[in-house]
Amino acid sequence: MSTWAVLAAAGSGERLGSDRPKAFARLGELPLLAESLRRLEDSDWIDSIVVVAPADWEEPAILLAEELGAGKVAGVVTGGATRAASVRAGVAEVPADAVVILVHDAARPVLPEEVVERVLAPLAEGWDGVVPALPVADTVKRVRGDEVVETLAREELVAAQTPQAFLADVLRRAVEGGEASDCAALVERAGGRVKVVEGDRRLLKVTTGADLELVQSWL
Ligand code: CTP
Ligand code: MG
Asked: Would the pTM count as exceeding 0.90?
Protein backbone atom coordinates (compact mmCIF):
# COMPACT_ATOMS: atom_id res chain seq x y z
CA MET A 1 0.00 0.00 0.00
CA SER A 2 1.89 3.06 -1.15
CA THR A 3 1.31 6.61 0.02
CA TRP A 4 2.39 9.48 -2.18
CA ALA A 5 2.74 13.13 -1.22
CA VAL A 6 2.09 15.97 -3.65
CA LEU A 7 3.83 19.10 -2.42
CA ALA A 8 2.22 22.20 -3.95
CA ALA A 9 4.94 24.79 -4.29
CA ALA A 10 4.09 26.48 -7.59
CA GLY A 11 2.49 29.68 -6.31
CA SER A 12 4.04 33.05 -7.05
CA GLY A 13 3.75 34.42 -3.52
CA GLU A 14 2.42 37.79 -4.56
CA ARG A 15 1.40 38.78 -1.03
CA LEU A 16 4.85 37.94 0.30
CA GLY A 17 6.33 40.32 -2.27
CA SER A 18 9.69 38.57 -2.59
CA ASP A 19 11.83 38.74 -5.75
CA ARG A 20 11.25 35.00 -6.23
CA PRO A 21 8.36 32.52 -5.83
CA LYS A 22 7.29 32.00 -2.21
CA ALA A 23 8.61 28.43 -2.06
CA PHE A 24 12.10 29.80 -2.73
CA ALA A 25 11.97 32.71 -0.29
CA ARG A 26 14.57 32.25 2.44
CA LEU A 27 13.61 30.57 5.67
CA GLY A 28 16.91 30.65 7.51
CA GLU A 29 19.65 29.20 5.32
CA LEU A 30 17.38 27.36 2.90
CA PRO A 31 14.36 28.02 0.67
CA LEU A 32 10.97 27.77 2.41
CA LEU A 33 10.26 24.62 0.38
CA ALA A 34 13.10 22.78 2.11
CA GLU A 35 11.37 22.57 5.49
CA SER A 36 8.21 20.75 4.37
CA LEU A 37 10.17 18.66 1.86
CA ARG A 38 12.58 17.48 4.56
CA ARG A 39 9.68 16.64 6.89
CA LEU A 40 7.89 14.60 4.19
CA GLU A 41 11.17 12.86 3.38
CA ASP A 42 11.64 11.99 7.07
CA SER A 43 8.02 10.88 7.60
CA ASP A 44 7.50 7.18 8.31
CA TRP A 45 4.13 7.40 6.52
CA ILE A 46 5.24 8.75 3.14
CA ASP A 47 6.75 6.52 0.44
CA SER A 48 7.26 8.95 -2.45
CA ILE A 49 6.98 12.64 -3.17
CA VAL A 50 6.06 14.76 -6.20
CA VAL A 51 7.07 18.40 -6.00
CA VAL A 52 5.02 20.87 -8.03
CA ALA A 53 7.33 23.77 -8.85
CA PRO A 54 6.77 27.15 -10.49
CA ALA A 55 7.67 27.36 -14.18
CA ASP A 56 11.45 27.87 -14.58
CA TRP A 57 12.04 26.73 -10.98
CA GLU A 58 11.96 22.96 -11.66
CA GLU A 59 15.76 22.76 -11.77
CA PRO A 60 16.30 24.58 -8.45
CA ALA A 61 13.68 22.25 -6.92
CA ILE A 62 15.54 19.17 -8.18
CA LEU A 63 18.85 20.56 -6.89
CA LEU A 64 17.29 21.30 -3.51
CA ALA A 65 15.94 17.75 -3.23
CA GLU A 66 19.43 16.45 -4.05
CA GLU A 67 21.04 18.80 -1.53
CA LEU A 68 18.64 17.55 1.16
CA GLY A 69 19.22 13.94 0.16
CA ALA A 70 15.48 13.63 -0.39
CA GLY A 71 15.50 10.28 -2.19
CA LYS A 72 11.71 9.93 -1.98
CA VAL A 73 11.30 12.69 -4.56
CA ALA A 74 10.16 10.75 -7.61
CA GLY A 75 9.36 13.74 -9.76
CA VAL A 76 9.29 17.50 -10.07
CA VAL A 77 6.53 18.84 -12.30
CA THR A 78 5.58 22.32 -13.46
CA GLY A 79 2.57 23.89 -11.76
CA GLY A 80 -0.37 25.68 -13.31
CA ALA A 81 -2.04 29.06 -13.00
CA THR A 82 -4.10 28.06 -9.96
CA ARG A 83 -3.55 25.80 -6.96
CA ALA A 84 -6.07 23.30 -8.35
CA ALA A 85 -4.22 23.18 -11.68
CA SER A 86 -0.93 22.65 -9.86
CA VAL A 87 -2.36 19.82 -7.77
CA ARG A 88 -3.82 18.28 -10.94
CA ALA A 89 -0.33 18.30 -12.50
CA GLY A 90 1.14 16.72 -9.38
CA VAL A 91 -1.52 14.03 -9.11
CA ALA A 92 -0.99 13.16 -12.80
CA GLU A 93 2.59 12.24 -11.92
CA VAL A 94 1.53 9.75 -9.22
CA PRO A 95 1.58 6.17 -10.55
CA ALA A 96 -1.62 4.15 -10.87
CA ASP A 97 -0.70 1.75 -8.07
CA ALA A 98 -0.62 4.47 -5.40
CA VAL A 99 -3.39 3.92 -2.86
CA VAL A 100 -3.28 7.16 -0.90
CA ILE A 101 -2.29 10.71 -1.89
CA LEU A 102 -1.47 13.36 0.65
CA VAL A 103 -1.51 16.93 -0.62
CA HIS A 104 0.44 19.57 1.24
CA ASP A 105 1.14 23.30 0.75
CA ALA A 106 4.82 24.20 0.72
CA ALA A 107 3.58 27.49 2.19
CA ARG A 108 3.00 25.56 5.47
CA PRO A 109 6.61 24.64 6.23
CA VAL A 110 6.12 23.33 9.76
CA LEU A 111 4.53 19.94 9.13
CA PRO A 112 4.28 17.87 12.32
CA GLU A 113 4.57 14.10 11.86
CA GLU A 114 1.57 13.54 14.14
CA VAL A 115 -0.68 15.49 11.78
CA VAL A 116 0.42 13.30 8.87
CA GLU A 117 -0.54 10.29 10.97
CA ARG A 118 -3.84 11.90 12.03
CA VAL A 119 -5.00 12.59 8.46
CA LEU A 120 -4.00 9.18 7.12
CA ALA A 121 -5.63 6.99 9.78
CA PRO A 122 -9.33 7.59 8.91
CA LEU A 123 -8.77 6.49 5.29
CA ALA A 124 -8.65 2.92 6.62
CA GLU A 125 -12.12 3.45 8.14
CA GLY A 126 -14.01 4.21 4.95
CA TRP A 127 -13.45 7.96 4.56
CA ASP A 128 -12.60 9.34 1.11
CA GLY A 129 -10.64 12.27 2.43
CA VAL A 130 -9.40 13.81 5.66
CA VAL A 131 -8.60 17.45 6.42
CA PRO A 132 -6.95 18.95 9.47
CA ALA A 133 -8.76 22.04 10.72
CA LEU A 134 -8.88 24.53 13.58
CA PRO A 135 -11.85 26.21 15.23
CA VAL A 136 -12.55 29.73 13.99
CA ALA A 137 -11.92 32.40 16.63
CA ASP A 138 -13.64 35.30 14.88
CA THR A 139 -17.27 35.54 13.87
CA VAL A 140 -17.42 34.96 10.11
CA LYS A 141 -19.80 37.03 8.00
CA ARG A 142 -20.81 36.72 4.40
CA VAL A 143 -20.58 40.13 2.74
CA ARG A 144 -21.36 41.69 -0.59
CA GLY A 145 -19.19 44.75 -1.08
CA ASP A 146 -19.32 46.52 2.29
CA GLU A 147 -22.68 45.12 3.36
CA VAL A 148 -23.11 42.15 5.67
CA VAL A 149 -25.42 39.62 4.06
CA GLU A 150 -25.29 36.87 6.67
CA THR A 151 -23.59 35.89 9.92
CA LEU A 152 -22.52 32.26 9.98
CA ALA A 153 -22.89 29.99 13.00
CA ARG A 154 -19.36 29.92 14.36
CA GLU A 155 -19.71 26.56 16.11
CA GLU A 156 -20.29 24.99 12.68
CA LEU A 157 -17.17 26.53 11.14
CA VAL A 158 -13.57 25.38 11.01
CA ALA A 159 -10.53 26.67 9.11
CA ALA A 160 -9.05 23.92 6.92
CA GLN A 161 -5.29 23.39 6.65
CA THR A 162 -3.07 20.93 4.83
CA PRO A 163 -1.83 18.15 4.70
CA GLN A 164 -5.06 16.71 3.32
CA ALA A 165 -5.19 12.97 2.65
CA PHE A 166 -7.32 11.15 0.08
CA LEU A 167 -7.87 7.76 -1.42
CA ALA A 168 -5.89 8.10 -4.63
CA ASP A 169 -8.72 7.11 -6.98
CA VAL A 170 -11.10 9.58 -5.34
CA LEU A 171 -8.63 12.45 -5.68
CA ARG A 172 -7.76 11.54 -9.28
CA ARG A 173 -11.41 11.86 -10.24
CA ALA A 174 -12.02 14.96 -8.11
CA VAL A 175 -9.15 17.01 -9.56
CA GLU A 176 -10.84 16.85 -12.94
CA GLY A 177 -13.68 18.83 -11.38
CA GLY A 178 -12.32 22.33 -11.87
CA GLU A 179 -11.29 24.99 -9.41
CA ALA A 180 -11.42 25.21 -5.63
CA SER A 181 -9.20 26.69 -2.96
CA ASP A 182 -8.46 23.28 -1.45
CA CYS A 183 -8.59 19.65 -2.57
CA ALA A 184 -11.23 18.65 -0.06
CA ALA A 185 -13.69 21.02 -1.75
CA LEU A 186 -13.17 19.14 -5.03
CA VAL A 187 -13.77 15.80 -3.32
CA GLU A 188 -16.87 17.13 -1.51
CA ARG A 189 -18.21 18.42 -4.84
CA ALA A 190 -17.68 14.97 -6.36
CA GLY A 191 -19.79 13.46 -3.56
CA GLY A 192 -16.91 12.15 -1.45
CA ARG A 193 -17.07 11.88 2.35
CA VAL A 194 -14.45 14.06 4.00
CA LYS A 195 -13.61 13.80 7.68
CA VAL A 196 -12.23 16.66 9.71
CA VAL A 197 -9.53 16.03 12.32
CA GLU A 198 -7.71 18.36 14.67
CA GLY A 199 -5.28 20.70 12.92
CA ASP A 200 -2.20 22.33 14.38
CA ARG A 201 -1.29 26.01 14.91
CA ARG A 202 2.22 25.27 13.65
CA LEU A 203 0.71 24.59 10.21
CA LEU A 204 0.38 28.33 9.72
CA LYS A 205 0.29 29.24 6.05
CA VAL A 206 3.06 31.71 5.26
CA THR A 207 1.35 34.53 3.40
CA THR A 208 3.13 37.73 4.44
CA GLY A 209 6.64 38.66 5.54
CA ALA A 210 5.42 38.73 9.15
CA ASP A 211 4.27 35.08 8.82
CA LEU A 212 7.71 34.15 7.52
CA GLU A 213 9.38 35.80 10.53
CA LEU A 214 6.98 34.07 12.92
CA VAL A 215 7.65 30.63 11.43
CA GLN A 216 11.38 31.39 11.48
CA SER A 217 11.16 32.12 15.20
CA TRP A 218 9.64 28.67 15.82
CA LEU A 219 12.44 26.77 14.10
N1 CTP B 1 0.09 26.99 -5.25
C2 CTP B 1 0.47 26.25 -6.36
N3 CTP B 1 0.14 26.70 -7.63
C4 CTP B 1 -0.53 27.85 -7.78
C5 CTP B 1 -0.94 28.61 -6.65
C6 CTP B 1 -0.61 28.16 -5.39
O7 CTP B 1 1.11 25.20 -6.22
N8 CTP B 1 -0.82 28.26 -9.01
C9 CTP B 1 0.50 26.53 -3.93
C10 CTP B 1 1.46 27.53 -3.26
O11 CTP B 1 2.79 27.28 -3.69
C12 CTP B 1 1.23 27.28 -1.80
C13 CTP B 1 -0.22 26.77 -1.74
O14 CTP B 1 -0.60 26.45 -3.06
O15 CTP B 1 2.10 26.30 -1.26
C16 CTP B 1 -1.15 27.79 -1.13
O17 CTP B 1 -1.19 28.95 -1.94
P18 CTP B 1 -0.91 30.43 -1.45
O19 CTP B 1 -0.54 30.46 -0.02
O20 CTP B 1 -1.99 31.32 -1.96
O21 CTP B 1 0.48 30.77 -2.24
P22 CTP B 1 0.70 31.73 -3.44
O23 CTP B 1 -0.41 31.60 -4.42
O24 CTP B 1 2.08 31.49 -3.91
O25 CTP B 1 0.67 33.17 -2.73
P26 CTP B 1 -0.16 34.46 -3.24
O27 CTP B 1 -1.60 34.03 -3.26
O28 CTP B 1 0.16 35.51 -2.22
O29 CTP B 1 0.38 34.79 -4.61
MG1 MG C 1 -2.46 32.13 -3.85
From this structure: yes
Distance CA 19, CA 131 (A): 32
Q: How far apart are alpha carbons 49 and 25 in whole angstroms? A: 21
User: Which pLDDT score is estimated for 178?
Assistant: 87
Atom of ligand 1 nearest to the CA of 206: 19
| Ligand 2 geometric centre to CA of 208 (Å) | 11
Q: How far apart are CA 24 and CA 37, in angstroms?
A: 12
Q: What is the pLDDT of residues 167-181, one digit of tens each?
A: 999 999 999 988 999
Candidate from 32, 39, 104, 105 with most ligand 1 atoms within 8 A of CB, to mutate = 105
Q: Indicate whether residue 9 lines ligand 1 (CB < 6 A).
A: yes
Q: Are 206 and 32 in contact (CB under 8 A)?
A: yes
Ligand 1 close to Cβ of residue 8 (< 6 A): yes
Q: Which of 8, 23, 21, 12 is nearest to 85 (CA)?
A: 8
pLDDT of 1 above 80: no
| pLDDT higher than 80, residue 70 | yes
**Tens of pLDDT, residues 120-155:** 999 999 999 999 999 999 999 999 999 999 999 999
8 near 22, Cβ under 8 Å?
no
Nearest ligand to the CA of 52 is 1
**Ligand at shortest distance from the CA of 21:** 1
